[in-house]
Each structure stands twice: as C-alpha cells, then as structure tokens.
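Dear Dr. H.,

I hope your travels went smoothly. While you were away I took the liberty of generating a structure for the chain from your last submission, since the lab meeting agenda had it listed for discussion. I wanted you to have the full record in hand beforehand rather than looking at slides cold. The sequence, exactly as received, is reproduced here:
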Amino acid sequence: MTLTLISEAHDGPVDTVPIGPAQLRDMRAVFATNSAIGVRAISAVDGSEWKTEHGSFDVLRKEYADIEPEPL
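The corresponding predicted structure, in token form, is as follows:
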C-alpha cells in the first residue's frame, strides 16, 4: 500500500532498490513506514543526518491518513 501511495504522490518514476549506508549520504530525506506508524522521518543513520521536515512527508502523511480502514 505504501509503495502505491508514494508512486501516486511522486511526480515521476519510483524505483525500489536495496541501498546501504554509503548511499544514504546522497538522500535528501529518509523515512520508515508500516501499518503501525504511518510515515516516520529518520534523522540519522551511521553519521548521515537529515532534517525531519520535508514536503514529501506532509504529502505522504496526508495520503496515508486518507486511506479507508479495512474491517478485521
């Protein structure tokens, strides 16, 4: 579900590839997501740091919040 949200919210192609700590230095923003936490900004990993406010997070959080819950 989250990959679908990212694809719909992003203007352009979305790739999913494994990356390591060395590639994180080049990222403008980093986040974690799952059904329990929604979209959570990550501020640092192995000496690389990012601001926890990024316009993409606002878009993703809104889209995430708008998902209709599924009955259990």
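Two observations you may find useful: The mean pLDDT is 82. DSSP finds three helices and four strands in the chain.

With kind regards,
E. W.
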